[in-house]
């Protein structure tokens, strides 16, 4: 009986997580278009539903009913595999991400995470690294020059930004003395890591922008020069996969930023339920992502490389050394 | 001295991403300013000015006689060949159009027909909402053209989109210069 309940609980949590992650892109696209509109003194979607609230549903239906086109010269197997490879890792990663301590429902304590791995941080970075294969395969398999260029850029960008990102979080791991995301949040109960690790946060955030391929680092799909980059040839539901994956990664980066540097569900001053604090902080970061997108131009390719190797990498190294010295 | 200070200030600003912060502040400010969108078919529409070139109309003189003398000058000058005029002689011995057809689907609203007309009989009026699902419905005959609304008397105002402004409705606009497009646009 115990076992059944435990397994049922995990299945329920995973199902809930998947449902939330699949549905969240809908309001997020709406928000993104609304924010974009108002930043440009437009209104954004207005016609489907109240203030265009049903617009994402309409878009979704359109995407699902569109022809699923595969180019004649494409590598069909890889072409079909790529969207799945891009979509699955962001979902898998959330297994290791805690959203709070626990809530008691009907007298039983239910933890707000699927699993508390002691190497959660490593797991997150390892799994999210797989996502780039989706992008690379997608660009390669489509057999189109824009797509290949897009995925080549992604390749180089991922390699140069994973490293500073990994280094940036080492400072956090040193402070918490643990790689478990749960322990990292618990270690920030009094003081958030951002106080000790401003440079680490800066490096992490910039690298996170690059990882989730958002402006100013969205070279992989630079609309201006590459058509749509690696997903130029994708349409219909496979394109929707890439979209959902992009939003899931944006969400993941925000969640990680909150957990690693902004105290997770620990609140300040205002006593709110921990989960509310968590959601508010994540929402703030998601907003910042969107805000950046409609403020900044895209970096040139060589600038991107220069920032990655000449600025972020030394900064993250220095951060580790200084944290280590201070820790001693 | 002050130049050196300026340089230092620029460097400090650069180190703390002052330029990026400026950009972010600007877009943030815009986000909370009023948007300039006119929600045309849903909420409001813009009244055309008197010089607006919309749907053609044929004029009558004081006796109610059709002004057109069927000289076909408009048909000749029209760059799209979309006017067709067939003349006849009426009871008073005047030359008048028996058939006067404009293919609105091909018209480019250049207004040359209005300029060419020696009898001041044709002009481009204020009507612009005449889209149609069939291009055949856009071939407008003489009698329809006689009934089309004329030039706008006032213009530039913004009214509710459902308001019918065609049949001699005069709309007083609060702004005599017309709608101020710059009203909600921040200029710094
Ligand atoms: S407005 Fe120009 S295109 Fe249209 S009927 Fe007159 S002359 Fe022809
Ligand atoms: S409308 Fe004017 S130009 Fe055209 S046929 Fe009549 S009189 Fe001539």
UniProtKB/TrEMBL annotation, chain B:
Pfam families: Fer4_7 (PF12838)
GO MF: 4 iron, 4 sulfur cluster binding; iron ion binding; NADH dehydrogenase (quinone) (non-electrogenic) activity; quinone binding
Top EC class for this record: translocase
Annotated TM spans: 12-33
Annotated residues for binding of [4Fe-4S] cluster 1: 68, 71, 74, 117
Binding site for [4Fe-4S] cluster 2: 78, 107, 110, 113
Cofactor requirement: [4Fe-4S] cluster
Known EC number: 7.1.1.-
GO annotation, cellular component aspect: plasma membrane
Ranges of residues in domain 4Fe-4S ferredoxin-type: 56-88, 98-127
Keywords noted in UniProt: 4Fe-4S, Cell membrane, Iron, Iron-sulfur, Membrane, Metal-binding, NAD, Quinone, Repeat, Translocase, Transmembrane, Transmembrane helix, Ubiquinone
Subcellular location: Cell membrane
Recorded topology in the membrane: Peripheral membrane protein
Cofactor remark from the record: Binds 2 [4Fe-4S] clusters per subunit.
Catalytic reactions of this protein: a quinone + NADH + 5 H(+)(in) = a quinol + NAD(+) + 4 H(+)(out)
SUPFAM superfamilies assigned to the protein according to its UniProt record, in alphabetical order: 4Fe-4S ferredoxins (SSF54862)
Biological role stated in the UniProt entry: NDH-1 shuttles electrons from NADH, via FMN and iron-sulfur (Fe-S) centers, to quinones in the respiratory chain. The immediate electron acceptor for the enzyme in this species is believed to be ubiquinone. Couples the redox reaction to proton translocation (for every two electrons transferred, four hydrogen ions are translocated across the cytoplasmic membrane), and thus conserves the redox energy in a proton gradient.
Record family assignment: Belongs to the complex I 23 kDa subunit family.
Assembly description: NDH-1 is composed of 14 different subunits. Subunits NuoA, H, J, K, L, M, N constitute the membrane sector of the complex.
Record's protein name: NADH-quinone oxidoreductase subunit I
Gene from which this protein is expressed: nuoI
């Amino acid at each position: 009986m115990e076992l059944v309940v435990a397994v049922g609980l995990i299945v329920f949590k995973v199902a809930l997580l998947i449902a939330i992650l699949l549905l969240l892109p809908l309001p997020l696209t709406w928000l993104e278009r609304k924010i974009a509109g108002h930043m440009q003194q437009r209104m954004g979607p207005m016609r489907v539903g109240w203030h265009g609230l049903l617009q994402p549903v309409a878009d979704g239906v359109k995407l699902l009913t569109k022809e699923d086109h595969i180019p004649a010269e494409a590598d069909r197997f890889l072409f079909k595999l790529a969207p799945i490879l891009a979509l699955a890792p962001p979902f898998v990663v959330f297994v290791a991400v805690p959203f709070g301590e626990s809530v008691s429902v009907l007298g039983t304590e239910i933890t707000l995470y699927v699993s508390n791995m002691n190497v959660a941080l490593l797991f997150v970075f390892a799994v999210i690294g797989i996502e780039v294969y989706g992008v690379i395969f997608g660009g390669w398999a489509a057999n189109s020059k824009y797509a290949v260029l897009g995925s080549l850029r992604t390749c180089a960008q991922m390699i140069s930004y994973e490293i500073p990102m990994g280094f940036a979080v080492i400072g956090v791991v040193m402070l918490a003395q643990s790689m478990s995301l749960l322990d990292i949040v618990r270690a920030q109960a009094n003081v958030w890591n951002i106080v000790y690790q401003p440079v680490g946060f800066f490096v992490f955030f910039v690298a996170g922008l690059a990882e989730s391929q958002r402006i100013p680092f969205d070279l992989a799909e630079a609309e201006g020069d590459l058509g749509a980059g690696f997903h130029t040839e994708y349409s219909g539901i496979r394109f929707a996969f890439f979209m959902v994956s992009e939003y899931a990664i944006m969400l993941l980066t925000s969640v990680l930023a909150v957990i690693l540097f902004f105290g997770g569900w620990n609140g300040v001053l205002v006593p709110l339920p921990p989960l509310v604090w968590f959601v508010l902080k994540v929402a703030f970061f998601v907003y910042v992502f969107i805000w950046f997108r409609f403020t900044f131009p895209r970096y040139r390719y060589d600038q991107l490389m220069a920032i990655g190797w000449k600025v972020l990498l030394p900064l993250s190294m220095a951060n580790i050394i200084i944290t280590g010295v201070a820790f001693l | 001295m002050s130049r050196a200070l300026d340089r230092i200030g620029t460097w400090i600003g650069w180190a703390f991403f002052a330029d990026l912060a400026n950009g972010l502040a600007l877009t943030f400010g815009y986000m909370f300013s009023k948007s300039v969108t006119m929600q045309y078919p849903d909420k409001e529409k813009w009244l055309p000015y008197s010089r607006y070139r919309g749907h053609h109309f044929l004029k009558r003189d004081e006796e109610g006689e059709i002004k057109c003398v069927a000289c076909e000058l408009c048909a000749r000058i029209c760059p799209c060949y979309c006017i067709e005029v067939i003349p006849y002689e009426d009871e008073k011995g005047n030359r008048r159009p028996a058939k006067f057809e404009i293919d609105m689907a091909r018209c480019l609203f250049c207004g040359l027909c209005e300029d060419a007309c020696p009898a001041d009989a044709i002009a481009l009026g204020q009507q612009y909402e005449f889209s149609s699902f069939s291009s055949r419905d856009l071939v407008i005959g003489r009698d329809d053209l006689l009934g089309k609304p004329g030039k706008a008397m006032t213009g530039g105002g913004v009214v509710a989109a459902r308001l019918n402004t065609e049949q001699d409705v005069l709309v007083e606009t609060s702004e005599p210069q017309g709608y101020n497009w710059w009203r909600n646009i921040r200029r710094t």
